[in-house]
Structures are given as structure tokens and as C-alpha cells.
Design a protein that fits this description.
Chain lengths: 235, 323
């Protein structure tokens, strides 16, 4: 038997672990960028010298989660090579509900992990916030992230089912706008001010920071996806 | 137990845990939006055989296979795989089916060994010896990354993934397109032959292809699909027996020939006629001579010629004809 045939038969992990690991590996680099962005935004106000920077981190974190989160979902679900995973999953003798449960769980963990880390109490200027404020902020971020994620997932699934790749791009590019819209909607309904500071009056979340995030986020999105697409085509 | 029961095919199949029919499709309709890809297809694939689904591009072959795998939901029709519904018994059906898609894609960063490990994790049973044999046979380096592999090598890897869990039914959708002739021969003779021989009478292959010549000698029975319908279904032996091309020559002009003698190919020369028939009998030669033919020569057709001839013949009747 040739040396080539001597494959080391490493016992595979359980299928759900293999699936989660592969999804994680596939989205690794966008996830690293995402994690770094969110954690930096959380830690930056502390400043290298301990001097708080003049930014409201939570809205930035929320926007980053909303903007980059769907990119990770799209990376996992809609790249060309992901069709291999789809084919493996859809033709494997595993129930679809268990497969989607695992994928949802692993993706949710990837998306919420930095948010959860941000919830760790730090010697932060905002520790003066009330627990209600913090809870509302965290709830808003998690809810909006989940909605953005669901939107991107539905878009991708629709695109796959209807065989319309254009829908994928639409889902990816429009999702930041949807996130922004949801911010406005949430604000209108419950009066949640994401740029709230202790003692401040309620104000609209659609401020300069948000427009900045929206425009640059959208540009970053397009550049990132063009690069990814080029890499996929080349591979 | 009496002898008559033992020779009953359905009972034999039951003993071997293989139903008489591996695949049964009745009046299948499947559409992509307004485009109807499959329009009332009927198909009966006996267990333990190598079955060909032949047809031109867009005939509905791939759509049919995807419906068998429950990757597509048909608008109407009845599908049974080993007597089970792919929709209702999704997991049970897929645990017995291996599939090689037309377009193979893997994660580009995975190595061969990693791809195999990933696929094996989803299967209840995996034959590691077979994996080693096939990897060696195709000379695939386990450490090689997918993005450094050629299209042919990726197809080979997909085939290994499809057969190593030793499925009862192997669904192949244009598996050899894009492979070079040597690899194709290896693919067909080594892998498909070995797969069929691994448990004679129990392993079924359903292959969709328009590269029919390559499957000559492996296909036991086939259906020619045209515009989403089964045009003709034949057993290969009977097809070779009944499908013939008849060359006849007359001293003058060719007389009017009755339709039952066969389909007249259009590019005839003066005084000569070429007839294609799917119901050949020696009497046809006598009938042609009775009509004044000087010489009558009969030649057998290859599977590919049968396919081309059948496609060229006018569709006498929508639906299916069986031989």
C-alpha cells in the first residue's frame, strides 16, 4: 500500500461539533475583525493612559454588531464554498431541525460572545449608569443583532431556495439599513436613547455617529465582499 | 418453503432487505418558478442494478435526482426510495443514499483528510479501509488542500465521500463531466464496478449523464428523458437486440415505406434509405426486400446511438414506452 493511502484515521468529533468547528473556521477572519472591533470599542474609552475617550461606545458596539454580524452569517451561509457544507448537511442522514439548531447555536455564540464579554463589569466611566440603563442597552444590542442576523439568514436562505444570488447581495447590503431602521423604530416605540449619558435628555439615536457608522460600514461591507468574492473565485 | 416462493423476486428482495424497486417515481412534476423542469416523469429503478438516466441538457435529470434527495420539493407526484418517502422519511432515506453532485465544491482551506473526516462525522457507518483504498487508487495526497486540487481530483474526492459509507443507492449527477479519459475510466471501472460488486444484487446506481458512451457495459437499464418526461425505458440487452439501424438500397428511387418499418433518417442518398427502429425483427428485412430493396444491411446500435436515434425520432406518443 502506498504511503498516500496511509491516512491517519483520526476519529471525527460528533457531527454537531464538526459542523460548528467548520463554520467557525470558515468565518474565522471576519470573526476576528468583528471581535476586535467590538472589544476595542468597549476598551478604548478606558484609553491607554486610563483617560476615557470622548465616544459613546455602546451605540458604536451596537452598530458594529449590527453591521459586521450579518457579514459573518453571510460568510458562513452564502460563499461558494459554503455550498459544500450545504450539500453535506442536506444530503446527510441528520434531521434538518437538529442541523439548523447547531448552526444557529454556533453562530449565535460567535455573534454574542463579544457582547457578553462587554457585559463583564469593568472600571468604566459608565459604571455610574443604572442597572436598568445597562440592561436596556444590552437588550437592545442583543435584539437588534438577532434581528439583523435573522434578516441576513432569511435573505440568504431565500436566495439559495430561489436560486437568486442577487438576493444574497441585497440581503448583505441592505441589512445595515435595516439595522438602522430598527434602531429608529425601537427608539420611537420605547424611547430608548442609545447615546444616553447619565443626566442627559432623551435624544434621537440618528446622530452623526450613526451616519458615520452607516456610510463607512456600507463601504467596508462592499470592499470586504468584493475581496472575498475575488478570493473565492480565485480558489 | 417451496421453490416457487424462493424464485419470487419480491421475496428474494425482502430476504436481502432490498425492495424490488430502489426508486419509484410516479407522475412527477417539478418547476422552478414558471419553468417546469419535470413534467409527469415516471421512473422505476430496480434494486441491485446500474440504471442510466439519459437526456440532453435541461431534460430534467438533475431536478429528478434532487427530488429523490428531498433537496427540491416537487409540485406533485409520488416518490419512493426503498419504499420510503424522501420527504416524510428524510433521515432514513439519506442514510442509505450516496450522492455525487454535478458541481462539486468543498471548503478551499480543507485538506483531503479533513474533508473525509468532516463527511464521515455525519455518517453512522464509514469504511476506513475503502477510504484508504480509493485515496490510494486516485493518488490523492491526504495533506493536499482543496484549493490546490484540480476539478477532476475534487470529483474523485466527492466520489470517495459518497461511497465510503457504503450506501445502498448511489446517485450520480453527471459525475464524469470535466474528468480526463484516464480518470474517467478509473472512475467507472474501478469505483463503480467495485461498488456494484461489493454486494452483488444489493447495490444500486442511478446515474444521470449525457456522456453515454462511457457507461456502455455498466448500464443494465436506462430511461431517456426528454423535456421532463420519460421518452423511452429499456433494458440494455433488449435495447441492443431491438434497436437497429437498417440500410436498404433500391435500384431506383426509394418507395414509400410503411411507418412500422422504422423512422427514416433524413440525410438519405439517392436510392438508399436508413431506417431506425426500436422494434427490430428479422421480418423487417424480408418486408424491405418485398418492397424491392436490392440490399438490406442491419447494424446494431451503441447506447449513445440509441440515445441519439431515439432523440431524433418523432415522439409518437407523449409518455413512456417500455421494452
Amino acid at each position: 500500500m502506498s504511503a498516500v493511502s496511509n491516512i491517519a484515521h483520526r476519529k471525527p468529533h460528533p457531527w454537531w461539533m464538526e459542523l460548528a468547528l467548520v463554520d467557525f473556521r470558515h468565518a474565522f477572519w471576519p470573526w476576528v475583525v468583528y471581535m476586535t472591533a467590538v472589544m476595542s470599542l468597549w476598551l478604548l474609552p478606558l484609553g491607554p493612559l486610563g483617560a476615557p475617550l470622548d465616544i459613546d461606545a455602546w451605540p458604536w458596539i451596537a452598530a458594529t454588531v449590527g453591521l459586521v454580524g450579518p457579514a459573518i452569517v453571510a460568510r458562513v451561509f452564502c460563499s461558494d464554498s459554503a455550498s459544500s457544507t450545504m450539500a453535506t448537511l442536506l444530503t446527510s442522514p441528520r434531521s434538518r431541525s437538529s442541523v439548523w439548531f447547531v448552526r444557529t447555536g454556533s453562530l449565535a455564540l460567535m455573534l454574542f460572545l463579544p457582547v457578553l464579554l462587554c457585559a463583564v463589569p469593568l472600571p468604566h466611566p459608565w459604571t455610574s449608569w443604572t442597572h436598568t440603563d445597562q440592561f436596556l442597552m444590552a437588550a437592545a444590542v442583543v435584539t437588534l443583532t438577532a434581528l439583523a442576523w435573522c434578516y441576513a439568514t432569511v435573505g440568504v436562505l431565500l436566495a439559495i431556495l430561489l436560486k437568486r444570488p442577487l438576493l444574497v447581495w441585497t440581503a448583505i447590503l441592505i441589512s445595515p439599513l435595516i439595522v438602522l431602521l430598527l434602531f429608529v423604530l425601537v427608539d420611537a416605540i420605547i424611547g430608548l436613547d442609545l447615546a444616553l449619558k447619565p443626566g442627559d435628555q432623551l435624544k434621537s439615536p440618528v446622530n452623526a455617529e450613526f451616519w458615520f457608522v452607516l456610510v463607512f460600514g456600507a463601504i467596508a461591507y462592499i470592499i470586504a465582499w468584493r475581496l472575498w468574492l475575488r478570493l473565492e473565485v480565485r480558489s | 418453503m417451496n421453490d416457487s416462493k424462493q424464485t419470487d423476486p419480491s421475496l428474494t428482495s425482502a430476504i436481502q432487505n432490498v425492495p424490488a424497486l430502489a426508486v419509484e417515481v410516479h407522475d412527477l412534476h417539478c418547476a422552478y418558478g414558471k419553468t417546469e423542469a419535470v413534467r409527469g416523469l415516471n421512473l422505476r429503478v430496480p434494486g441491485g442494478r446500474c440504471y442510466g438516466l439519459f437526456g440532453r441538457n435541461g431534460a430534467g435529470k438533475s431536478t429528478t435526482i434532487k427530488c429523490l434527495l428531498n433537496l427540491l420539493r416537487p409540485q406533485s407526484g409520488d416518490i419512493k426510495v426503498f419504499g420510503l418517502s424522501p420527504q416524510k422519511d428524510d433521515v432514513a432515506v439519506k442514510s442509505r443514499v450516496g450522492y455525487v453532485p454535478e458541481h462539486v465544491s468543498f471548503h478551499p482551506w480543507m485538506t483531503v483528510a479533513r474533508v473525509l473526516r468532516y463527511h464521515s462525522a455525519f455518517r453512522l457507518h464509514w469504511n476506513h479501509d475503502l477510504q484508504s483504498q480509493l485515496t490510494a487508487c486516485f493518488d490523492l495526497d491526504p495533506k493536499k488542500r482543496v484549493d490546490a486540487m484540480s476539478k477532476g481530483m475534487r470529483s474523485q474526492l466527492a466520489l470517495i465521500c459518497a461511497v465510503c459509507h457504503e450506501p445502498d443507492l448511489l446517485l450520480l449527477d453527471e459525475p464524469t463531466s470535466g474528468l480526463d479519459p484516464i480518470i474517467r475510466r478509473e472512475f467507472l471501472q474501478t469505483v463503480i464496478g467495485a461498488y456494484m460488486d461489493s454486494a452483488p444484487g444489493q447495490k444500486t446506481v442511478l446515474v444521470s449523464t449525457h456522456l453515454i458512451a462511457e457507461w456502455e457495459g455498466l448500464i443494465d437499464e436506462f430511461t431517456i428523458v426528454e423535456k421532463g418526461r420519460a421518452r423511452i425505458t429499456m433494458q440494455t440487452d433488449k435495447a441492443r437486440e431491438h434497436c437497429r439501424r437498417i440500410h436498404a438500397r433500391w435500384p431506383g428511387t426509394v418507395p414509400d415505406l410503411p411507418a412500422e418499418l422504422g423512422y427514416r433518417e433524413p440525410d438519405e442518398t439517392e436510392g438508399a434509405a436508413r431506417l431506425l427502429t426500436t422494434k427490430y425483427t428479422p421480418e423487417q428485412e424480408d418486408n424491405l426486400r418485398a418492397l424491392g430493396a436490392e440490399t438490406v444491411e442491419v447494424e446494431p446500435l451503441t447506447l449513445e446511438e440509441i440515445f441519439v436515434a431515439t432523440s431524433a425520432m418523432p415522439n409518437e406518443q407523449e409518455g413512456r414506452r417500455e421494452l
